[in-house]
Design brief:
Structural class: alpha+beta
Number of strands: 8
Radius of gyration: 25 Å
Number of helices: 6
Order of helices and strands: HHHEEEEHHHEEEE
Largest sheet: 8 strands, antiparallel
Length: 196
């Protein structure tokens, strides 16, 4: 009798174990925050750029270093994180100006950090009031401005940056992704940051 009870108890426990192993448990992100995927390229179209950018394996500063290193003397002046589409992975689009006045837009894969495309662009198309000398004379580089903006925002990850003219010098406007949204930080030619 004891053997039968032990065997029956073991069979019940084994059946319960199989049943729980077959039960699917799913967790869903709140409607306003889609579930995170492993890479920025795998992020769904339902995510906003500030939500997908933190998934990128490559930081904006690393992408800028890659783009600036393509040719000697290059200086990044604009950078945008862009979600994956049918022909491009999630990437950073980085505009780099060179001492000779040439402007090149580089595409850097946000997950691998590899340069995957480069296109020459007319500088007049983007900047009418800024000249190459304005960028070359700037005391603060775009990469420096990213670090300053991330600190001012209290952490987070910079994912977009653009340059404007402030008086006779350049000023950077940086977008920083935070857990609950995005924050705009301006960094002046002296390296001083202020929230937008």
């Amino acid at each position: 009798m004891f053997t039968r009870l032990t065997t029956a108890a073991a069979l019940v426990a084994l059946s319960a174990g199989f049943a729980s192993a077959q039960t699917n448990t799913t967790t869903t992100a709140p409607a306003d925050k889609p579930a995170a995927s492993g890479t920025a390229t795998a992020a769904g179209k339902d995510m906003k750029e500030w939500q997908a950018a933190p998934l990128a394996k490559t930081s904006l500063a690393q992408a800028i270093s890659t783009a600036e290193g393509k040719e000697a003397g290059g200086r990044a002046i604009d950078a945008d994180f862009e979600l994956a589409d049918g022909k491009n992975p999630a990437h950073y689009s980085i505009k780099v100006v060179y001492p000779d006045g040439k402007l090149v837009e580089h595409g850097i894969n946000a997950d691998t950090g590899e340069l995957y495309k480069s296109e020459n662009q007319p500088i007049e198309r983007y900047f009418t009031r800024l000249k190459v000398a304005d960028f070359n004379n700037a005391k603060v580089s775009l990469k420096d401005a990213l670090t300053i903006a991330e600190q001012k925002a209290g952490g987070g990850k910079a994912y977009e940056a653009e340059v404007e003219r402030e008086g006779n010098a350049v000023e950077y406007e940086i977008s920083v992704a935070l857990p609950d949204g995005s924050k705009e930080i301006k960094v002046g030619p002296d390296g001083v940051a202020k929230a937008d």
